[in-house]
Amino acid sequence: MSNWAEWLIPDEAFPKLKTLAIWNCKKLTEDLPCLLPCLTDCFISSCPELASSLTLMPIVNKVHLIP
Hints:
Blueprint: E1 19-23, E2 41-45, E3 62-66
Parallel strand pairs: 1-2, 2-3
Protein name: Disease resistance protein
Organism: Morus notabilis
């Protein structure tokens, strides 16, 4: 998925997602889906252009960001 450049899903597409892992998506820009109410673990590695707002991820307890 090294050519992945943007999310093409509605914000409410993953209402029960608990773990999100994204790595080596150097072209991925934009923001993560803004509504991930059940997300508890987030792992992001080698995605230098990715933006994220954790404000609508109320129960995230682990975030791993690796440049």
